[in-house]
Amino acid sequence: MAAIKSTNTTAERRLRSALHARGVRYRLGQVVITHDRKVRPDIVFKMARLAVFVDGCFWHGCQEHCRRPGSNSDYWAAKIDRNSKRDHVIDAALEADGWTVMRFWEHQDPSDAALVVEQFLRSLRRPAFQHRPVTEQRTIGISVVGKHASIN
Ligand SMILES: [Zn+2]
Question: For the whole prediction, is pTM greater than 0.70?
Fold first, then answer.
């Protein structure tokens, strides 16, 4: 299967450094194996089950910037439509397995995108503790108190 785009595009690198600047850590080159396929998101947060993609405006058919070339326009239109259908299939496969999918356009400000990712990751932390059954809360309560002790 041919790759839609080269990995490590400029837009992707910008988002990675914006995340890094915010102190958000991630691993590179992670593959997510869903029930029916292997997916290679641009950035993966395994624990949070968050898959991030940075989509090229041309290849993924951004409404604002995707100018389909005049010659061979049918060819390009079909190709771009195929890509965007494939994106939907990938998103559905990930979401069916409990993943959250975030897609950013390459034209979007990488620091805005990084902020969205960071806020999502932060939003997961507390509820993860709050929703634990009472019996478990007691055992993990010690470490939570311990971590917060320096704040008080
Ligand atoms: Zn665009």
Answer: yes
